[in-house]
Design a protein that fits this description.
Blueprint: H1 2-9, H2 11-27, H3 31-56, H4 64-82, H5 86-108, H6 114-133, H7 135-138, E1 144-145, H8 161-183, H9 186-196, H10 198-203, H11 208-234, E2 236-237, H12 244-257, H13 263-278, H14 286-300, H15 304-342
Antiparallel strand pairs: 1-2
């Protein structure tokens, strides 16, 4: 059982998941299903970024949707107003979000706990107001219309929903691979050390401010790239992209799947949009339905689905190791007794 779990949780599991993503268009009923899944992939990429700063570093950034909007509007403004090629604008979407995140991070990360979260909530609302009011740059409430689709790359075209689906899947796969490398590196261990105890991390020689700023910048870089993909996929932008409710949605994805895990946020980001689609008849009672469900999840699965499975397996292995350690002295004592009897 443990061997099977290790295989599914390792490269084999990720390979099977990627294969399922590649095969999905062949079993999807129509283009609408492809659109729903593609949008879920985009928000999954942003959620993975939020999980880095929140789940692995312990800093809850409530402006994450604002940074996603920065990436989206970077693509929209550059392509529509200035005629910049899509891929150049897309590359800049992550860079612009990261640069802005660096300056906001060196200010906001001096705060701790809920003070940091409240500060970033204000930053996110300021981003929303700037997008809504600065009509000369962002087109205000009218929004940006006519964003071009991603330019062809050689023989690869990105016009149909299926082609756009595979494009978004590619970036999600690359983003997950890069995040796996980050969290399993020495830098990733520094992030976890800061989350577990800032005092202990500092005593071990970790530069707290530098570590948290790096995590923040990487996190919003993911949000910016997700926003750039969103702009090229939807091809219309409005101020609502920066709404804090998107950050709360991504937070819900992390809590459901398992915050501070690799697979958990991805699971939550892919499962919840489909659950919402199949419960559209309850749209008016969305919070009445999802609120109690989320409360029950936090009570009975406080580590999320994936996190709770990992916790259960860790406790099981711990009990097995403890039983083996208790059995070892007993076996040694019996062997000694047998040797004494033969003597």
């Amino acid at each position: 059982m443990d061997r099977v779990f290790d295989l599914l949780h390792g490269k084999l599991g990720w390979s099977l998941l990627l294969a399922a993503g590649i095969a999905f268009p062949f079993v999807a009923g129509n283009d609408y299903h492809l659109t729903v899944m593609s949008t879920a992939y985009i928000f999954a990429l942003a959620t993975v970024g939020l999980n880095l700063i929140t789940g692995y570093t312990g800093q809850f950034n409530l402006a994450h949707a604002g940074f996603m909007a920065v990436g989206a509007y970077t693509v929209g403004i550059l392509t529509v107003d200035h005629g910049v090629p899509f891929w150049v604008a897309f590359a800049l979407s992550g860079v612009v979000a990261a640069v802005l995140g660096f300056f906001i991070g060196i200010v906001s990360l001096r705060l701790k706990g809920h003070y940091f979260s409240i500060f970033t909530l204000c930053v996110g609302y300021i981003m929303y107001l700037v997008i809504e009011k600065w009509e000369g740059l962002t087109h205000g409430t009218v929004g940006i219309i006519g964003i071009p689709s991603p330019s062809p790359i050689g023989p690869l075209q990105f016009e149909s929903p299926r082609e756009l689906y595979y494009l978004v899947l590619f970036f999600l796969a690359v983003g997950m691979w890069a995040m796996h490398r980050i969290v399993n590196s020495l830098m990733g261990r520094s992030f976890v050390a800061v989350r577990n105890s800032e005092d202990l991390a500092e005593a071990l020689g970790i530069n707290l401010m530098r570590t948290k700023v790096i995590a923040f910048v990487l996190s919003v870089f993911y949000a910016g790239l997700a926003g750039g993909l969103y702009a090229g996929f939807v091809r219309f932008l409005g101020p609502s992209v920066a709404g804090v409710e998107h950050t709360f949605d991504m937070t819900m994805y992390m809590l459901i799947g398992g915050i501070g895990t690799m697979f958990g946020p991805l699971l939550g980001a892919l499962a919840m949009p489909w659950l919402t689609q199949y419960l559209q008849f309850l749209q008016e009672y969305r919070f009445v339905v999802f609120g109690p469900l989320l409360v029950m999840l936090v009570i009975f699965l406080p580590y999320g689905v994936v996190g709770s499975v990992l916790q259960w397996r860790a406790r099981r292995l711990s009990r097995r190791a403890a039983a083996a350690s208790r059995a070892a002295p007993q076996g040694s004592a019996q062997l000694s007794a047998q040797e004494g009897g033969h003597a």
